[in-house]
């Protein structure tokens, strides 16, 4: 058969597959049964991660970020946890997959780096032994080969004198070094997706910057995507391609780094940015507190704390996301057709004071 006689369809299909998201989360809802009722930690969120990109989930502690990423590979204990929705990885639905399939993907194709390396490492064994065990779980290799790979990984994540430190115990390393070891352990299976859950929270600013630089280097070296979880928008400024802002289990806003930092649309996103050093609100923080997850508000989750909230914000569930520019969407009633979105801008509507703006919005309320 000549080259011109070949059916072009397979190539077209391959191109389509390659353009599909690496990870696609749709309507993810994770709840926990408690004595006080059903606790809703994640309530119908959508998140997409494409190969080679870094997507950051941002929000206050308690916003549902950790539960969301642990739901991806079903790390949430069931019962009391219950995960609903769709999580597709390379086109395969992980929530309906059998346990053997999930185990083969977890730690291999999707790897997790957790918040506290102090608790994640076993202090009864050397770091080298733990790395070798992790390698041999994923690969059928001799111990000598596993040891060589473990030393190489320690070297790649920046552990100085890796071969001589192979037999050291976790307590002999600093906090930043422990986190580097956990990153090395996550890289054992050469993952396509690295899920990093608050990996810099317990580190000082200098070490934090080093770990962020390391993530960027390894992302390129290992050709992997990163789903990064943090409560601090300042952390993600240099590493994120796209940001998804979560609050009380709901998505408030999503967009590129430039969208979020230069043109934030949701009042909650603006409040988070105001908490960054030098922005004026880093000491007092955001007034109020997160709603009770067993009794979320009827309308927008942020409405009880929002200075711009009107009657429409307190009913009819979380507003549907409105795309305000390509790839940038906001879940806020002020972006609905017929409303003035400038009401929720820092300056308020042109020529109108903030108090007058709120009154104007109320007068147009349904």
From TrEMBL:
GO biological process, one term: peptide transport
Cell location: Cell membrane
Matching InterPro entries: AAA+_ATPase (IPR003593), ABC_Ni/Peptide_Import (IPR050388), ABC_transporter-like_ATP-bd (IPR003439), ABC_transporter-like_CS (IPR017871), Oligopep_ABC_C (IPR013563), P-loop_NTPase (IPR027417)
Keyword list, A-Z: ATP-binding, Cell membrane, Ion transport, Membrane, Nucleotide-binding, Translocase, Transport
Entry membrane topology: Peripheral membrane protein
Reaction(s) catalysed (UniProt annotation): Ni(2+)(out) + ATP + H2O = Ni(2+)(in) + ADP + phosphate + H(+)
GO CC, alphabetical: plasma membrane
Any Pfam family the entry gives: ABC_tran
Ranges for domain ABC transporter: 23-273
UniProt-recorded Gene Ontology molecular function terms: ABC-type nickel transporter activity; ATP binding; ATP hydrolysis activity
EC number of this enzyme: 7.2.2.11
Spans annotated as Disordered: 1-20, 340-366
Recorded superkingdom: Archaea
PANTHER family, per the entry: NICKEL ABC TRANSPORTER, ATP-BINDING PROTEIN, OLIGOPEPTIDE TRANSPORT ATP-BINDING PROTEIN APPD
Subunit structure: The complex is composed of two ATP-binding proteins (NikD and NikE), two transmembrane proteins (NikB and NikC) and a solute-binding protein (NikA).
The protein's name in its UniProt record: Nickel import system ATP-binding protein NikD
Source organism (scientific name): Natronomonas aquatica
């Amino acid at each position: 058969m000549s080259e011109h006689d070949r059916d072009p369809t397979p190539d077209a299909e391959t191109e389509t597959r390659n353009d599909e998201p690496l990870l696609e989360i749709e309507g993810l809802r994770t709840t926990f049964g408690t004595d006080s009722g059903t606790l809703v930690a994640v309530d119908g969120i959508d998140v997409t991660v494409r190969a080679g990109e870094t997507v950051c989930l941002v929000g206050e502690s308690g916003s549902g970020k950790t539960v969301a990423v642990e739901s991806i590979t079903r790390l949430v204990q069931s019962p009391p946890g219950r995960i609903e929705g769709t999580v597709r990885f390379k086109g395969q639905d992980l929530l309906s997959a059998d346990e053997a399939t999930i185990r083969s993907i977890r730690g291999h194709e999707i790897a997790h780096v957790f918040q506290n390396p102090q608790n994640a490492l076993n202090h009864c064994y050397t770091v080298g032994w733990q790395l070798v065990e992790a390698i041999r779980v994923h690969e059928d290799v001799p111990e000598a080969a596993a040891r060589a790979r473990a030393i190489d990984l320690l070297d790649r994540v920046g552990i100085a004198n890796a071969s001589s430190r192979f037999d050291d115990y976790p307590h002999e390393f600093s906090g930043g070094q422990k986190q580097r070891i956990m990153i090395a352990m996550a890289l054992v299976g050469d993952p396509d997706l690295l899920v990093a859950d608050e990996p810099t929270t317990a580190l000082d600013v200098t070490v934090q910057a080093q770990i962020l630089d390391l993530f960027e280097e390894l992302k390129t070296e290992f050709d992997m995507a990163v789903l990064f979880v943090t409560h601090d928008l300042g952390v993600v400024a240099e590493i994120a391609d796209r940001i998804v802002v979560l609050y009380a289990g709901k998505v408030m806003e999503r967009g590129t780094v430039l969208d979020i930092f230069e043109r934030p649309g949701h009042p909650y996103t603006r409040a988070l940015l105001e908490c960054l050093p030098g922005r004026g609100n880093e000491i007092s923080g955001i007034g109020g507190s997160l709603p009770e997850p067993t009794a979320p508000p009827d309308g927008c989750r942020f409405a009880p704390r929002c200075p711009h909230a009107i009657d429409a914000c307190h009913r009819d569930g979380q507003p549907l996301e409105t795309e305000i520019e390509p790839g940038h969407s906001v879940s806020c009633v002020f972006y609905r057709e017929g409303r003035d979105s400038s009401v929720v801008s820092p300056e308020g509507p042109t020529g109108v004071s903030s108090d007058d703006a709120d009154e104007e919005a109320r007068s147009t309320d349904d």
